[in-house]
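hey so i finally got around to running the thing on that chain from the lab meeting. sorry it took forever, my laptop kept dying and i had to restart like 3 times. anyway pasting the input first so we r on the same page abt which one it is
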Amino acid sequence: MTLDQLPPRRRAEIVAIDWAALAPDEAKRLRALGVDQGARVAVAHRGVFGGRDPIALLIGRMTLALRRSHAAAMTVREL
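ok and heres what got predicted. didnt touch it at all, straight out
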């Protein structure tokens, strides 16, 4: 399943990221924030309008706003 499909508050581990689907500067920023393979994450909540953007992602002790298109490039495994 991809990260954009993960139900809220369910914990998961990122198992693969399609870096080619992201712009190089966006990929660099996400890696700097700790979003990479092996990271444990959870969806805190989603936006309420239109495409349900952005997604609030819990990673460690940090909450990160992520575009749905970026989350769709990440394959996760529920824990």
